[in-house]
């Protein structure tokens, strides 16, 4: 069926839901670095609507993604678990073709918890947690509505002949920029469900490679950045002349759409009833001709996507919640993607599941002083020899080549004095290094599918 024939619907209103449950909108950019917004230091271009969102809300300056690549970061968000406990700890393709290996049927997801609490639930963008029709399909994991790319590999292109509307593969105009259609569907979902609490999850594809932007937006930036006209970016079958110019065009497209979202909430009188979060699923990529060095995309931090140094996992994050969040504030509380499940559960008046790794951030985003503290934050990654990282207080330990015999020596950094992770302090602090090395081994559970040293196929 054609996109024009898609029927817009509102999810039937549940009875008995609490009247003070806030709406939740969660916008997750794809491969956007810490320094890629002007309110987080970007100098090459501006993001005025996100800057205004930060002025009206709160910046979280020490917030981390759940992982350093797409699928496990989404799994962490949906389950409240870090990647030492997640079922999905890497990008793994499904053998049958389109889509990735699925979340298990018995997973308890954020969408299920909010749906059971009376929320309309919709996801719009890139899924990556279960091939179409599998137990991990979004409409089988708590979402009433899904529109976009089920498969993250398919999402490498912004022009395609099909997308997914729930369990239905729908024809799509290959001349239309998919991001625009996806965002339009999300706004329609919000408008249709204005009279009940809703959870709108927007895992958009911008600015993941391929570096494709609408022609008019791209042309403007090609004129501004003519020094890159001799470069051609190639990715997933796309060829882009001056891919460097495509990047600000893409990010500003997203910036404007976030502005449209906030404007709609004001138009509908929902701005004081809604919590909006903007963040990224990991650090900046190095693909398709993108030049994160030119844009200083990782800000003051070391590393990129697929690294567990700060640049690979620390992400720009804004919380906007009029009447709840102090305007223009910022927080240095160290938090991570697995904290959002208990946060939104508390806001919705729902008990979070036991045994999760996340903590509610409600005290932080409301400006209170009784924020529970993490004992540690932990990540693991199963490509490129295997990597682990753990943060406890200001100290961060990184271990590389975990799956190879002996592995590498543990690296230790004090983020308070060395946020760029330039000075390895392991030799100076052997006792602390040993404690964190032991902690790395005890805060995770082994996974047969994601075992260090197992050859993993990179689904990007």
* Beta-strand residue fraction: 15-25%
Whole-angstrom Rg: 21 Å
Q: Please state the structural category.
A: alpha/beta
What is the 3D form?
A: globular
Explain how this protein is built.
This protein is 24% helix and 18% strand. The chain contains 11 helices and 18 strands. Strands 7-6-5-4-8-1-11-12-2-13 form a 10-stranded mixed β-sheet, with helices on both faces. Strand 9 and strand 10 (238-241) form a beta hairpin. Helix 1 (48-56) packs across helix 6 (243-267) and helix 5 (215-224) packs across helix 6. The protein is globular.
Describe this structure in a few short sentences.
With 460 residues, the chain is of the alpha/beta class. It has 11 helices and 18 strands.
